[in-house]
Amino acid sequence: MLSVSEPQIDEDAWSVNVRLEDASGQTVWEHVIYGIDGVQAALLGLHFAKTRLLADVGYRFLGGTDLMLP
Predict the structure, then answer these.
(1) 13-44, pLDDT tens digit by residue?
(2) Which superkingdom, per the lineage (predicted)?
(3) Burial of 33 from C-beta contacts in 10 A (0-12 / 13-18 / 19+)
């Protein structure tokens, strides 16, 4: 199951928490994604979740599993 929290503003950045769970309800992937506004944060979160679902071995950014962008 894919879940995306409502966008939240933290100081100067908007963020959403994106989580993928398996059939048993265990979290298999979860990250906080930041954007310049709530819409961008939500769209980036959905994009990264889709990429993670479609990848054979999962999504990696700069060699790690952290998906925060500059």
Answers:
(1) 999 999 888 778 888 889 899 999 999 999 99
(2) Bacteria
(3) buried
